[in-house]
């Protein structure tokens, strides 16, 4: 009987945490400062809903005109083959930046900087500029933004570093609570923090065992690394291999443990955290083994990914 009571108490505590987080989500969206948020109330619909259920529909835009949505992946083009199974390649979305940053493996302290996409695709490593980092990185969830590299410091459960790529010094760091106990994606076991940059800013995606292993997304201030807000999503990390953030929406990519045709099967929109419409499954056009990294580039609206040493 005592064991049963303990299990019930644990379940009640978990439900209470979920309710508290949903309440924070609503409060965050409703209390953004006026210069960063615009609330548009559809009066006719509100009037009708008030008659029916005393509800209202609110459209919220967070600071940036962001109306991009992923509706499909038309084609994949392999731009490079490398010896390492794991890895990632990135481009700084800051205006005027054409450099490519190449991360080989899932744990290292050196990043290769290429002057352009052409230099990267031609495979001229001798022309690459090696950047020695002050601390090694772990996983494949790194991002480069405005001349800074954001990454998970190796051999730590939850430390995020912000390193200035020009002088190779640590500009800032933070410890993200609740991270490091589970891999972000069940099929990409070396990545415990997956950082993302998109139209609304800097994000961290991770899996939290306290919420059933579902994915959690946290918005970070890109300057100070301070946590702005956290959302507990409805997307499971089970059978997930990667994910994308686009205009405040999380797109989770799933596959099988043996590798197959990847597909996006779960979406979570921070603008509508309570009522989210069902969306069709989006399949990738080719069948590969699992993706070990995937990033969305907000400037050119392209996806950058790694599939067992193939980079597209």
TrEMBL record:
Subcellular location: Secreted
Segments forming a coiled coil: 5-32
GO biological process terms, semicolon-separated: signal transduction
PROSITE patterns named among the record's database cross-references: OLF (PS51132)
Pfam families in alphabetical order: OLF (PF02191)
Keyword Coiled coil on entry: yes
Ranges for domain Olfactomedin-like: 65-312
Chief place of localization: secreted
Keywords for the protein's UniProt record, in alphabetical order: Coiled coil, Secreted
GO terms for cellular component: extracellular space
Alphabetical list of PANTHER family matching this protein: OLFACTOMEDIN-LIKE PROTEIN 1, OLFACTOMEDIN-RELATED
Designated name of the protein: Olfactomedin-like protein 1
Species name: Salmo salar
Annotated gene: olfml1
């Amino acid at each position: 009987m005592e064991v049963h009571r303990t299990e019930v108490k644990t379940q009640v505590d978990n439900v209470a945490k979920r309710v508290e987080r949903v309440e924070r989500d609503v409060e965050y969206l409703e209390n953004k400062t006026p210069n960063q948020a615009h609330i548009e109330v559809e009066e006719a619909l509100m009037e009708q809903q008030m008659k029916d259920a005393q509800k209202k529909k609110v459209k919220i835009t967070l600071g940036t005109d962001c109306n991009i949505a992923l509706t499909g992946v038309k084609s994949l083009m392999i731009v490079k083959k490398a010896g390492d199974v794991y890895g990632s390649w990135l481009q700084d979305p800051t205006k005027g930046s054409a450099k490519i940053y190449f991360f080989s493996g899932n744990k290292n302290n050196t990043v290769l900087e290429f002057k352009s996409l052409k230099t990267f695709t031609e495979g001229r490593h001798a022309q690459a500029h090696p950047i020695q980092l002050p601390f090694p990185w772990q996983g494949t969830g790194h991002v480069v933004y405005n001349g800074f590299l954001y990454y998970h410091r190796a051999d730590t459960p939850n430390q995020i570093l912000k390193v200035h790529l020009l002088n190779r010094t640590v500009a800032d760091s933070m410890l993200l609570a609740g991270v490091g106990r589970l891999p972000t994606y069940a099929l990409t076991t070396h990545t415990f923090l997956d950082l993302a940059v998109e139209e609304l800013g800097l994000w961290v995606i991770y899996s939290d065992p306290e919420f059933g292993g579902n994915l959690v997304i946290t918005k970070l201030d890109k300057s100070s690394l301070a946590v702005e807000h956290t959302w507990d999503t409805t997307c499971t990390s089970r059978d997930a291999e990667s994910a994308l953030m686009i205009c405040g929406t999380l797109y989770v990519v799933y596959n099988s443990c043996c590798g197959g045709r990847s597909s996006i099967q779960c979406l979570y929109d921070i603008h509508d955290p309570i009522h989210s419409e069902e969306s069709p499954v989006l399949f990738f056009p080719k069948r590969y083994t699992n993706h070990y990294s995937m990033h969305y580039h907000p400037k050119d609206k392209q996806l950058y990914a790694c599939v067992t040493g193939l980079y597209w």
